[in-house]
Amino acid sequence: MLDHIPEFYFLRAKLYRPTLPSDHILRPRLLSMLGRINHQQMAVVIASAGYGKTTLLSAWIEQLHCPHTWLTLDDGDNELPIFLSYFLAAVRSIFPDFGKQILTFSQASTLPSVPTIIKYLLNEIDKIDQDFVVVLDDFHSLTNPDIFVILEGILRYPLPHFHLALTSRY
Fold first, then answer.
1. What is the DSSP letter of 7?
2. How confident is the model at residue 34 (pLDDT cuts 50, 70, 90)?
3. Quick check: 66 and 133 in contact, CB under 8 A?
4. How far is it, in rounded angstroms, from Cα 134 to Cα 137?
5. Helix, strand, coil distribution of the chain in percent, nearest 5
6. Are 117 and 81 in contact, with CB atoms under 8 Å apart?
7. Which of 8, 66, 136, 151 could form a disulfide bond with 131, CB atoms 3.0-4.6 angstroms apart?
8. CB-facing half-sphere around the CA of 142: CA atoms within 13 A
9. What is the mean pLDDT of the chain?
């Protein structure tokens, strides 16, 4: 977590994968499609509200055999320092040493430029030598163009072990 985000503001519950309801319907075809993420860098699940996007990804994550992390987004995550704090906390939940250099930026009064953040994130992600998945649930909550540029910058380069899964509404 970035130090300049007050502890009382940081909601750890956003990092928990939702539990599956006991009556959830298995969707083997969709789960199989998501299972191909090892050959892709990104998977996107888009549908209207109530169609089971989060439940589908939660069921998929439950059967994964690699490290994974979950971040549920909301409107409050549109400030770049807040989004970065949650993204770093999510990845650090599976790789505790991730992003140490980026964490030092939090002591400065301003963040470095977006291209600099992208470079640091790319280099940090590239240090991880095993497949892992980051789920960003409710991606439609984000509107900050800097966040989109950062994610686009990460996805621009083929990082062999990084996989991103997004859910979003129409």
1. T
2. confident
3. yes
4. 10
5. 45, 15, 40
6. no
7. 66
8. 24
9. 89
- Output the pLDDT for position 111: 86
What is the Cα–Cα distance from 164 to 167, expressed in whole angstroms? 10
Nearest to 150 by CA among 130, 170, 121: 121
Q: Tokens 């960003």 appear where?
A: 136
Instruction: Tell me the residue type at 19.
Output: T
3-state secondary structure 94-137: CCCCCCHHHHHHCCCCCCCCHHHHHHHHHHHHHCCCCCEEEEEE
pLDDT number for residue 107: 55
| The one-letter amino acid at 132 | F
Position 141 pLDDT exceeds 70:
yes
Residues paired with 167 in a beta bridge: 45
Residue type, 5: I
Report d(CA 55, CA 19) in Å as an integer.
Answer: 8
Tally Cβ neighbours within 10 Å of residue 150: 20
What is the C-alpha to C-alpha distance for residues 45 and 54, in angstroms, rounded to an integer? 9
CB 83 within 8 A of CB 141: no
